[in-house]
Each structure stands twice: as structure tokens, then as C-alpha cells.
Design brief:
- By secondary structure, the protein is an all-alpha fold.
- Helix 1 runs antiparallel to helix 5.
- The relative contact order is 0.20.
């Protein structure tokens, strides 16, 4: 069901995902062409806000903060999984893996390598600030528009 809290949470997480993606582009120096990287992450952020944060709004501010931190962690997880799956697919098409199990394990190895690149204080601060803004606005929307 569409509620104001879901919509506000989805839009806020989409915005946080966009700005965090733009910051993350600077962490990957060797990549020059990112394509639709920020827009895909924005769509994943919208879905995380709509599915994870929005339905749980209205349970108090401390619960909203914990739900938004969970939503931010889910955002990073799903983005890492998506891009590592794409990288694994590209490597599999170049026949870099001997079998399906090696390719499946390669997804997690690539995700760990990408995750290590994101271990940056600025990246986490942007993500946490976006989650806190999302928490406050979605909780406020839940209280005012029922």
C-alpha cells in the first residue's frame, strides 16, 4: 500500500544513494566510464527505502534510525552484489572460470574487492547522514500523514 512514509523513505534513500554513488566514483580511480552507475544505485536506493524502511515507519525515532541504518546496509549489499555479478558475468564470458561453482565463488570474491575500495570514512559518513535524514523525514511523514 502506498503511504507517505514509504514515498518519503524511498525518495530520501534514492537521493542518498545518488550522492553516495557520486562520491564512490572518486574511490575507483582506474575506471573512467561509469555509465548509468549512479542511476542504477538510485533505483536500488528507492527500492530499499520503499521495501525496507517505509513499512516500518511510525514506531518511534530510535526504531526509525535503526531501520534506516539497516536500509543503508542493504543498499550497499545489493549494489555490491549487482556489480560483482555483472563483473563475474563479463569474466565468465571471457572464459576465466573453469566451472559454475568457481564463477559463483567469484561473485563473492569480487564483492569483497569492491567492498574494500568502499572502506572510506567519507563514504560511510555520507551513507549514515543520508540514513539519518531518511529516518527523521520518514518518521515525520508517518506521524503527520496517516
Amino acid at each position: 500500500m502506498c503511504t507517505a512514509a514509504r514515498l518519503i523513505a524511498a525518495l530520501c534513500m534514492a537521493g542518498a544513494a545518488y550522492f553516495t554513488s557520486e562520491y564512490a566514483k572518486g574511490l575507483f580511480d582506474e575506471v573512467q566510464n561509469f555509465g548509468v552507475f549512479s542511476y542504477i544505485n538510485t533505483a536500488i536506493g528507492f527500492l530499499c527505502g520503499w521495501i525496507i524502511i517505509g513499512p516500518r515507519a511510525g514506531r518511534g525515532m530510535s526504531a526509525a534510525i535503526s531501520h534506516c541504518i539497516t536500509g543503508a546496509a542493504a543498499l550497499v549489499f545489493w549494489c555490491l552484489m549487482l556489480y560483482s555479478l555483472k563483473q563475474m558475468w563479463d569474466l565468465a564470458l571471457r572464459r576465466r572460470y573453469d566451472g559454475a561453482m568457481e564463477a559463483a565463488a567469484g561473485v563473492f570474491e569480487i564483492a569483497i574487492v569492491y567492498g574494500e575500495r568502499l572502506l572510506n570514512t567519507g563514504f560511510f559518513m555520507m551513507l549514515i547522514i543520508g540514513a539519518l535524514v531518511t529516518a527523521v523525514l520518514s518518521e515525520t511523514a508517518s506521524r503527520h500523514w496517516r
